[in-house]
Amino acid sequence: MAIRTGLIGYGLGGAAFHAPLIATTPGLTLEAIVTTNPERRAQAERAYPGVRLLSSADELFTRPRPVDLVVVTTPNRSHIPLAMSALGAGLPVVIDKPVAPTSAAATTAAPTTAASSSAAPSVSPAGQSASTPSPMADSSPGR
User: Fold this and answer.
1) 1 pLDDT band (50/70/90 cuts)?
2) Residue 137 included in any domain
3) Is 83 inside a domain boundary?
4) C-alpha 43: how far from its chain's center?
5) Domain range for residue 66?
6) pLDDT digits (tens, 9 = 90+) for 109-137
7) DSSP states of 25-56
8) Which of 22, 67, 82, 106 has the fewest C-beta atoms lying within 10 Å of its C-beta?
9) Is residue 38 part of a domain?
10) Model pTM score
């Protein structure tokens, strides 16, 4: 079963990177795109016919057929508030880099994300589960 993904933001990051990656990755479907910009909305409609276009993240979080995953690719200052809202709606989140404009802003999410991910596997910075050895751990020549 495919992971139904909602994309918040359709600027450069959303249009050039996240939407095409989601749309072409086996196991993921691009279910909805959130953008308030009329030109970007028209661009998304042309590029992804049939994908639901929404005007607010709240629409994504409260719609009758929810998504399974939210990807946030908006201006940096809105990453944490949008991610916290998605987590509050019980949705997993991927945040575009940087997580926040400052480390202080990023740490505001730490207690919530730690509590919401207590059952999730630990993931290394390289994106591998903690039980999977990292290829970077091998220091043999040729690596």
Assistant:
1) confident
2) no
3) yes
4) 20
5) 3-101
6) 766 555 555 444 333 344 433 443 333 33
7) STTEEEEEEE---HHHHHHHHHHSTTSEEES-
8) 106
9) yes
10) 0.76
